[in-house]
Amino acid sequence: MRRRWLAGITMAAVLGLAACGGGGGPAAPTGQASGTGGGAKQQVEVFSWWTGPGEADGLKAMKEIFEKQNPNLTFFDAAVAGGSGDKAKALLQSKLQADTPPDTFQGHAGAELLGYIKAGDLEDLTFLYDELKLKDAFPAQLVEQISYQGKIYSVPVNIHRSNILWFNPSVLKEAGVAAAPKTIEEFIAALEKVKAKGKIPLSIGSEWTVTHLMESVLLGSLGTDAYNALFKPGADWGSADVTKALNDFAKIMSYAGDPQDDWQPAAAQVAEGQAAFNIMGDWAYGYFHNPPEGGLGKQSKTDFDWAPSPGTEGTYMWLSDSFTLPKGAKNRDGAVAWLKVAASKEGQDAFNPKKGSIPARKDADAALYTDYLGDALKDWSSNKLAGSVQHGVAVSQPWLASINESVGLFIGTKDVAALQKGLVDAAAANAQ
Amino acid sequence: MARKGGSALRRARAWLPGLLLVTPSIIAIGVFVYGMLGWNFSLAMTDKHDEVSEGNFVGLQNFVDIWDEPRWHLSVNHAILFTVVFVLGALVLGWFLAFLMEKGIRGEGTFRAIYLFPMAISFVATGIVWRWLMNSGQDERAVGLNRLFDVVGLPQWAWFRDQDWGMAAMAIPAVWQMSGYVMALFLAGFRGIPEELREAARVDGCTEWGVYRHVVLPLLRPVTLSALIILGHISLKTFDLVMAVSGKQIITDVPAVFMWVAVFDFHDPAKGATIASYIVLSVAVFVIPYLIWSVRKERRS
After folding, report:
1. B91: distance to nearest CA of chain A, Å?
2. Nearest residue in chain A measured CA to CA from B269
3. What is the pLDDT of residues A166-210, one digit of tens each?
4. Residue pLDDT, tens place only, B194-244
5. Does A408 touch chain B (CB under 8 A)?
6. pLDDT, tens only, B133-171
7. A397 at interface of B, judged by CB pairs closer than 8 A
8. In chain B, which residue's Cα lies nearest the Cα of A83?
9. B143–chain A Cβ distance below 8 A for any pair
10. Segment B242-290, tens digit of pLDDT
């Protein structure tokens, strides 16, 4: 009998611990980290959603540099699995509300962090930018787009590009399309030609990939300046130009194949020659190119090829993973040490070739970035910049949720007027 | 005096340990179930539409406003479609399995275990498996059920990616999971019907079908009602299965998923609480009449 009681109490204690620790496992006690016990290693809890092939390797490479530079600190990987961080963000939300933040967490640089900033969850990192002269290291337009009221709250560790048109050269050849379409009109004509050959003109994944497609069509149809103006105060989402862009989007969507489960199977349809085009961010390159354990093992330029999405040549629609310093971090010094690694040339050059992205710094070692990444690095230094909607640069989380809702309803109704009304309402309710 | 005090002590001895035993759970349920429910309802009646603002009392405003949203109508319709397919499917399949068992099948224990087993699996695990089984890939990309359909020459289907009937497909794994449990309920019901009643009916010249129609089915009514209540409330608050199969997409949006999106994506606590209140109320519509009915029945007997 007594043993059963004991078992019950132990069980309850374990459950309680698990609830508090957020599934931290045996390495959870970040509380110890604050105590500066003589010589004991302090732990830095780094929260991210990098658990997939490529991204986890990049994080590991950065971790090694961090532990070499900081022998008295240990890196605790608090990554939560799940593409684009849905589950990680929900867990983070509860941790922040309970005032038990991780020492540093990953977030998309830009407006996505606005909610955390307004709630007073993040420390201003301007001091770090001054100390490390980061304003010179990052492009000026990037620094401007991630600043909020003159302060900067995150350190970008990489840059991804979202406006990429991936295509299958042999499917295009078969359909008589000479080269990647440069304008929306050429794109629609090319889609029609592919359709006539009986292949899928455009592959599409789950609902967020449709929003991803829409941001590229908006940029391609409106042009960079008009697109960027949509996210400034007083923007007019109800204009005739936006109507035209959304009609283009509806027309392009009419060529889309059956929706796949996520972006990977949709991208694979292009690489395997069932579909001609797919618009997806440049993380697709790693998926196409990597050996079969994590990727498709395809040859670039023969099995798949790329171009800026139609109408967007000369513009780099960017997104960036970045790290922050939450207020009340248990091990603030350790977190700052991590941010210094994330901001450094060495850290970014270790992380990015593995993750399949380019560094945010202008002084990175260009020799490390070849094939697609070489193109990307070249464009990054010369192109105009636009912020991605789906990936948290241009709009805050509630605004994005409203946009996704309108797009999700549009997939069912195909009603362009209702879509535009939804976008107008979303902008009115969430203008920053 | 001393004797009286002694009897009070003796009486206390009779009820005190029992009270002490249940007090912690009464307190815990009071705080974590009813307290939280109350908190949720009071939050739903404020205008706390972001995490930082304080929120003022606005009465039933949120409850009315949500009916202006096309997405809310969509998710309610989805929940109804899901409930109808799931409850009917599980009742019919569960009844049929119990019927077969009752007819006397060899190795009944084994079959019972097999059919009951899915209930031991969490909806999340079920969802992960069915996500693959109901993959929308067609032709050479087909996997799971679509591959099977391809092989036997049946038309392939987009399953839960079908705009109109996707929610009906979503109910299939739920039927798979719960019909074994319904079978167990019905089997107990069948076994509870005295053989004499059936014999009497047969003597009176009833056909075998007539025995079921006029004797067995009416006596199964209480079991059917219990099954309906259990399935109905599971169905209305369904969340984990939908998230595991399809994620938070509009095409399979149900109120519980909408609630998650409202709280974690829209960062709108009041809206999330409003949806949660509606879910609780809809479950109450099922459960409260059942409770009243069973209390009355107990009094009658």
Report:
1. 31
2. A398
3. 999 999 999 999 999 999 999 999 999 999 999 999 999 989 999
4. 888 888 888 888 888 888 888 888 888 889 988 998 899 899 989 999 999
5. yes
6. 988 877 777 888 988 888 888 888 888 888 888 899 999
7. yes
8. B247
9. no
10. 999 988 899 999 999 999 999 989 999 999 999 999 999 999 988 888 8
Q: Do B267 and A411 touch (CB under 8 A)?
A: no
Q: What percent of chain B has pLDDT over 90?
A: 50
Question: Quick one: closest CA in A to B268, which residue?
Answer: A398
Question: pTM for the full model?
Answer: 0.86
Rounded distance, CA B183 to CA B173, Å?
16
The yes-or-no verdict on residue A15 having pLDDT over 70 is no
Q: Between residues B286 and A61, which one has the greater pLDDT? A: A61
Q: Indicate the pLDDT class of residue A26, thresholds 50, 70 and 90.
A: very low
Block residue for tokens 């996210």: A231
ipTM: 0.85
Q: What percent of chain A has pLDDT over 70?
A: 90
Q: How far is A42 from chain B (nearest CA, A)?
A: 32
* Beta-carbon separation of B51 and A405 below 8 A: no
CB B238 within 8 Å of CB B58: no
- Residue A104, C-beta contacts closer than 8 angstroms, at least 6 positions apart: A44, A45, A46, A47, A323, A324, A325, A326, A329, A335, A338, A339
Q: Would you call B250 and A412 a contact, using CB atoms and an 8 Å cutoff?
A: yes
